[in-house]
Structures are given as C-alpha cells and as structure tokens.
C-alpha cells in the first residue's frame, strides 16, 4: 500500500533537517538534493532560513525561537 503524499513530504523534510544538523547547521542551497517541497515546508515552519552570503545562498537551521 502506498503512503499518503503528506507523510512522504514530512519524511523528506525531516530527513533534510537531519542532513542540515549533521552538516554543521547549514549547507549551500545549490548542493541540496532534496525536493523544493521539503525545503519550502521547513521554511514555512520557520525551522530553517536562507542566508545570502554575497556569493551563494545557504540554507541554515533557524536558531531564533
């Protein structure tokens, strides 16, 4: 039986968050091999943020709470 799409997207977002934690809290946005939906899900929940460093964009865990 196939999984509902919502759980798949949630699992991908969870895996992405784990990937960022293992990577030291941030990773270049162009190098992330997760779906745009997973990235947007974490952005909507304000768990991650995008930072412009001047030469690239970083996706990093949002420490503000």
List strands and helices in order, with pairings.
Layout: H1 5-22, E1 26-28, H2 36-44, E2 48-52, E3 57-61
Antiparallel strand pairs: 1-3, 2-3
Helix pairs in contact: 1-2
Care to describe what's here?
Helices cover 42% and strands 20% of the residues. It is an alpha+beta fold and 65 residues long. It has one domain (5-61). Strands 1-3-2 form a three-stranded antiparallel beta sheet. The longest helix has 18 residues, at 5-22. The model has no long low-confidence stretch (mean pLDDT 86).
Q: Short summary of the structure?
A:
This protein has 65 residues and is α+β, with helices and mostly antiparallel strands.
Global mean pLDDT: 86
- Class based on secondary structure composition and strand pairing: alpha+beta
Side-by-side strand order of the widest sheet: 1-3-2
String of helices and strands? HEHEE
Shape: globular
Percent helix: 40-55%
Number of helices: 2
Separation, N- and C-terminal Cα atoms: 38 Å
Give the radius of gyration: 12 Å
Q: Which residues form runs of ≥5 with pLDDT under 50?
A: none
Tell how many strands the DSSP assignment holds.
3
Features of this protein?
globular, alpha+beta, 65 residues, single chain, 20% strand
